[in-house]
Design goal:
The structure holds two protein chains of two kinds.
Chain A (H helix, E strand, L loop, with lengths): L1 E6 L4 E3 L14 E5 L2 E8 L16 E7 L6 E6 L8 E6 L8 E5 L1
Antiparallel strand pairs in A: 1-2, 1-3, 4-5, 4-7, 5-6, 7-8
Chain B lengths: L6 E7 L10 H16 L8 E5 L9 H9 L6 E4 L5 H14 L5 E9 L6 H9 L14 H16 L3 H4 L1 H11 L12 H6 L2 E3 L2 E2 L8 E9 L9 E10 L13 H14 L8 E4 L4 H10 L8 H7 L15 H4 L5 H21 L6 E8 L4 E9 L2
Parallel strand pairs in B: 2-3, 2-4, 9-10
Antiparallel strand pairs in B: 1-7, 4-7, 5-6, 8-11, 10-11
The chains are: A mainly beta, B alpha/beta.
Chain lengths: 106, 382
């Protein structure tokens, strides 16, 4: 699951951290969204400013548009670049509500 | 009442490359001195100073610091930070100050020793902080990785090949080969780009700008310059649509569309009126996406047009003729100013030579990942 914040008034979601809705400024509720989504893009950095969170370099970085909240694109890591348009599931690799996020088959 | 014109009355930039042991302040002073000489202006005439951030000189008061070091006492001084858009954002701000009557001579300065004063890993780490600290940075990404995400999607959507995209860095290197002060001047081919080492595939080394030392400065003034064409900022626009890719609009180039439309509307001009271009080119894909989003090229056409000669020095619409960030070099804020310095120089040449080229230019700067956008239209008074 992907932890997110939902504004009941706007019915919009964002990744957690603000504590308010960036559209209306109103209160938000904590929700867990299914991690399924579609790969928007993927690339393979050969050099990283931080140690690779999955222990190998090069590794792939991808953006996944969540089915349950299309206003969120989760940036996630994978051993190899997935195909654009592929359906995968994102999940936090270490602790809920923060990167690194990983990708797994649906 | 007509809005007072903001003239581009002085420009200067150093060579980009390695300037060790000069530090950021020393480089800023060099560019400022050369800019005043170019404008025929004195220190005492400067009534406002804008200074871009320098990663090698984190300071609370970059404009006051430069004012003291260089030797001016302006009535208005600001440090400015908008990533790669900072240079043109400062020119936009300077022209608005002049138009509002708040200043008559605004000196805009940027410079740092990002190549010799920091390790490559430090620079990569600093730049990666444009990513979201909680939801992106711990993934281990970097600025090249973020732009590689743009590139993979751009190639997917347009059907272009990596080799076709390489026409853009090949063009810029050809321009740099003819430019004194460019960091990389040896010609390269599409084969060289394809064979260069992978940085973040689909981006290879020659798709990417280098890290450079260098500085640039511009003087914006209410009075036209004593000599040469009366170049002015005829229109400007900005758009800040997102900071992070995870919160970017579906059309991540939306901000470039908005800021360019605003600048063209303010100038009463359109892309077809332009005679020269200076467009931010940190990576091959940046340049392709920005040329297309700003209406200069049709979708998927920018790289093809580079190969066809549209952007050559003697072509219909010369682009980044100094070599751009990819070949002249990229010392941060001064890199974003270099396109303006080059464009003003070439417009002066056109004027002196009585060239038939239209005395209009379009400039665009990008900060973050197409996050901060600034567009300017320059025009020479008839």
């Amino acid at each position: 699951m992907i932890a997110a914040e939902r504004c009941p008034r706007c019915d919009r979601h964002a990744l957690p951290g603000r504590g308010f809705c960036p559209r209306c400024g109103g209160p938000v509720e904590a929700v867990d969204l299914p991690g399924e989504g579609v790969v928007l893009s993927a690339a393979t950095p050969h050099r990283a400013p931080l140690p690779s969170p999955i222990g190998v370099t090069p590794f792939a970085v991808a953006l996944l548009r969540l089915d349950a909240a299309p206003e969120i694109a989760v940036m996630a890591v994978a051993p190899e670049a997935p195909r654009i348009g592929a359906r995968l599931r994102a999940r936090p690799l270490e602790e809920p509500g923060r990167a690194p996020y990983g990708l797994e088959p649906v | 009442m007509t809005r007072p014109a903001a003239h581009l009355s002085g420009v200067a930039m150093t060579a980009f490359g390695d300037h060790a042991p000069a530090d950021a302040l020393a480089l800023q002073c060099r560019a400022a001195e050369a800019c005043l000489a170019d404008a025929g202006a004195e220190r005492g005439e400067i009534d406002a100073l804008l200074v871009g951030y320098a990663t090698t000189l984190p300071h609370l008061m970059p404009a006051t610091l430069l004012a003291e070091t260089f030797g001016v006492t302006p009535g208005f001084a600001h440090g400015v930070s908008a990533g790669g858009a900072t240079g043109l954002v400062m020119v936009d701000l300077a022209s608005r100050l002049v138009a509002a009557g708040a200043a008559r001579r605004v000196l805009v300065v940027a410079g740092e020793n990002r190549r010799s004063g920091a390790t490559r890993d430090d620079v990569l780490r600093t730049l990666a902080q444009t990513g979201h600290p909680r939801h992106e940075v711990p993934n281990g990404g970097s600025i090249p990785a973020y732009y590689a995400l743009l590139a993979a999607r751009y190639l997917h959507d347009t059907g272009l090949t990596e080799r076709e995209l390489a026409h853009l860095p090949v063009l810029l290197r050809r321009h740099a080969a003819a430019t004194e002060g460019a960091q990389f001047r040896d010609p390269v081919t599409e084969d060289d780009v394809m064979a260069s080492k992978p940085i973040a595939p689909p981006l290879k080394l020659l798709d990417c700008c280098p890290v450079s030392d260098g500085a640039a400065a511009v003087l914006i003034s209410a009075d036209p310059p004593a000599a040469g064409p009366a170049l002015r900022v005829a229109g400007a626009g900005q758009a800040h649509t997102h900071q992070h890719m995870s919160e970017a609009p579906d059309d991540i180039a939306l901000g470039a569309r908005q800021s360019s439309a605003a600048a063209f509307a303010a100038a009463g001009r359109g892309p077809a009126d332009m005679g020269r271009l200076g467009v931010y080119d940190s990576f091959s894909v940046t340049l392709a996406m920005l040329l297309e989003a700003t209406g200069i090229s049709a979708p998927g056409r920018a790289a093809h047009e580079a190969a066809e000669g549209r952007f050559d020095r003697g072509g219909p619409l010369p682009l980044n003729t100094h070599g751009g960030l990819m070949s002249y070099g990229h010392p941060g804020v001064a890199g974003g100013l270099s396109h303006l310095v080059e464009t003003v120089r070439r417009m002066r040449d056109d004027d002196a030579a009585g060239a038939a080229r239209r005395p209009l230019a379009f400039l665009h700067g990008d900060g973050g990942v197409l996050s901060a956008n600034v567009s300017l239209v320059l025009e020479a008074a008839a």
